[in-house]
Amino acid sequence: MSDVRAYRAGLVHCLDDPRSAGPDACVHHPDGLLLIENGHVAACGDWNALSPTLAADVPVEHLPGQILTPGFVDAHVHFPQLDMIASFSGQLLDWLESHTFPAERAFADRAHADDAARAFLDELLRNGTTTAMVFGSVHRTSVDALFEAALARDMRLIAGKALMDRGPDGLRDSVDQGRDETEALIADWSRHGRLGYAVTPRYALSSSPEQLTAAGEILARHDHVWMQTHLAENPREVALVAEAFPDARDYLDVYDRFGLVTDRSVFAHCVHMTDRALHRMAGCGAAIAHCPTSNLFLGSGLFDLARADAHGVSFGLGTDVGAGVSFSVLRTAAAACDVAQMKASPLNPLRAFYLATLGGARALGLADRIGSFQTGREADFVALDPAATPLLARRLRGVTDIAEILFALMVLGDDRVISRTWLAGAVAHRRN
Ligand code: GUN
Ligand code: ZN
């Protein structure tokens, strides 16, 4: 028996990147109908045009004033950093030592990881994030806990155990342990439900050449797994990588030499990049997770969106919690607009919304499954409430332009504007 239900509300989604396809790439139905059948989008359009075609027994929920959008995609976030978000320190390497590594050590304990996994997924859903690419800690148990919790919610999630045989005390694996645990996690979880695995060398300073070799071999062995890591985030980090790998042409080249630069690879940050590296990424279809709140918080630098565009590199948005200061991809999109302003190459609101949805899905190679309301896509979506706060209600009184509405929701909104989140057609979060 099929499960069919319809929603009447405002609808907005992107079919393409507004930068190349123009503003019509984003489709807005002020009074729309979204039809969901067995967890997938069956139809999306104007209420007046589509409602006469609805069978009489299809339940219709009317959400007046609300706007339905595809769920948000967080292309880079750290599960074991949930409890240390908003910890004050210096830049990246100090912050890792003083706050991050101590917090991650606790994830050797399965009960701690289970509790954190539930809270982490709750937080994603409260913020309208329905898909994320997630770093675990070095402990495989952290990823077991996260996958188990995500599978129970039927969430589309990609994650991996951090590989770090050059990590600090208490957070080191070995080449063999990292390889064996990664293979075991792939066997146990990848493609179960909507779960995916990402081979996860933490960054070039945390893995030996032998471990990076093993990571590349695992990636080559499994055509359904991804690769995630950090790249060119902080000037001191970039200098240390150049010292540690003197033969590499640049930071990306370190990964490239081990077979880690592919169309299934997602590199967080990419703030301090050579033209050669950007050209290489575009050529092989590797993607960037742009993490603006993190880059501001750690003083890492300002991502050059215009340069990434000039080279044709695909990018999505990452919250990068706990260096990022918000789980909200809406807030992250607003920060991306701020950073673009600082680089004098403005990011317009429709494109920022695209990056939060279809652009993120494209960066993760998932645009045929999620990121829009095209027929057949998985029904991961959110209801935004443009009157969620008194200030938003005042600002948006009488406003009908969707770009203006979305921009205000990004700048003034956060988890409070997410009134409901659906995973595969089922309600997974309801505010109030
Ligand atoms: N580089 C290596 N590890 C990390 C991390 O946990 N967060 C960030 N932002 N950068 C990193
Ligand atoms: Zn990160």
Structure description:
The chain has 432 residues and is α/β, with parallel strands linked by helices. The protein folds into 2 domains: 4-71 and 372-430, Urease, subunit C, domain 1, CATH 2.30.40; 72-327, TIM Barrel (Alpha-Beta Barrel). 38% of the residues lie in helices and 24% in strands. The chain contains 16 helices and 16 strands. The protein has helices at residues 18-21, 47-50, 92-105, 110-126, 140-152, 175-189, 209-221, 235-244, 251-256, 275-284, 292-297, 305-311, 329-342, 349-363, 390-395, 402-412, and strands spanning 4-14, 26-37, 40-46, 60-70, 72-78, 129-135, 156-160, 162-163, 195-201, 226-231, 265-269, 287-290, 314-317, 381-384, 418-423, 426-430. The strands form 2 sheets. Strands 5, 6, 7, 8, 9, 10, 11, 12 and 13 form a 9-stranded parallel sheet that branches. A 7-stranded mixed sheet has the order 3-2-1-4-14-15-16. The protein is globular, with a radius of gyration of 21 Å. The model has no long low-confidence stretch (mean pLDDT 98). Zinc ion (ZN) is lined by residues 76, 78, 230, 268, 320.
Outline of the structure:
The chain is of the alpha/beta class. It contains 16 helices and 16 strands. The two termini are 31 Å apart.
Write the layout of secondary structure elements.
Elements: E1 4-14, H1 18-21, E2 26-37, E3 40-46, H2 47-50, E4 60-70, E5 72-78, H3 92-105, H4 110-126, E6 129-135, H5 140-152, E7 156-160, E8 162-163, H6 175-189, E9 195-201, H7 209-221, E10 226-231, H8 235-244, H9 251-256, E11 265-269, H10 275-284, E12 287-290, H11 292-297, H12 305-311, E13 314-317, H13 329-342, H14 349-363, E14 381-384, H15 390-395, H16 402-412, E15 418-423, E16 426-430
Parallel strand pairs: 1-4, 5-6, 6-7, 7-9, 8-9, 9-10, 10-11, 11-12, 12-13
Antiparallel strand pairs: 1-2, 2-3, 4-14, 14-15, 15-16
Helix pairs in contact: 4-5, 5-6, 6-7, 13-14, 13-16
The structure holds guanine and zinc ion.
